[in-house]
Design a protein that fits this description.
By secondary structure, the chain is an alpha+beta fold. About 20% of the residues lie in helices and about 45% in strands. It is built from 3 helices and 12 strands. The chain has a 4-stranded antiparallel beta sheet with strand order 1-2-3-4. The protein has a 4-stranded antiparallel beta sheet with strand order 5-6-10-9. It has a 4-stranded antiparallel beta sheet with strand order 8-7-11-12, with no helix packed on it. It is elongated.
């Protein structure tokens, strides 16, 4: 009987510590969660938030860091609000370098769902398809950022899906639905 009470007390203390920890890491809004993540390195210091999407209790957002690289982050919504759950740098995704199509070197963020992103600078772009199936979301950086350099026709593209693919394939289409680039 004493062992059960002792075990129950230990479990209650563990549960209380978990709840307090979860509460302290959670924020009411996605922006609050982003700005309150540890930013001791230049990689995670936010220059400007670009935007992103929510998928149920998950969100994928992007920001421009102090080194002008794109950083993708995953956030999860818990009982107490949004909390940071991982990041993926777009090393080499400097927005002031005109690129036909670039892909971030990593796609996985802490679970079986895959999250891929990159930059493109094509004229007349309409859509990007990943692995012949998944449409990518496009964010026009010229409209989304206040940036001191000219970045016309520069888009952040991203996709989120469950299929695991170490080498993913990306196709870019123009407004007339012509394939203009693949990689």
């Amino acid at each position: 009987m004493k062992k059960r009470k002792f075990l129950l007390i230990i479990l209650l203390i563990y549960g209380l510590v978990y709840i307090v920890s979860d509460y302290n890491r959670s924020f009411k809004s996605i922006n609050e969660a982003l700005y309150n993540e540890d930013s001791s390195s230049n990689f995670m210091q936010i220059n400007q938030i670009i935007g992103g999407s929510e998928y149920g209790r998950k969100a994928f957002y992007f920001f421009l860091n102090k080194e002008n690289n794109i950083v993708g982050v995953r956030l999860d919504k818990g009982i107490f609000g949004w909390k940071f759950n991982g990041s993926s740098t777009g090393t080499g995704l400097e927005i002031d370098i005109k690129q036909k199509l670039s892909k971030a070197s990593t796609g996985a963020l802490n679970d079986s769902n895959k999250f891929y992103f990159g930059l493109t600078s094509f004229n007349n772009i309409e859509k990007i398809i990943i692995n012949n199936t998944y449409p990518a979301t496009l964010i026009n950086l010229e409209d989304s950022l206040t940036y001191d350099k000219d970045i016309p026709n520069t888009y952040l593209w991203y996709g989120h899906f469950k299929e695991e693919s170490a080498n993913y394939f990306v196709e870019v289409f123009d407004k007339q639905n012509n394939l203009i680039h693949s990689q």
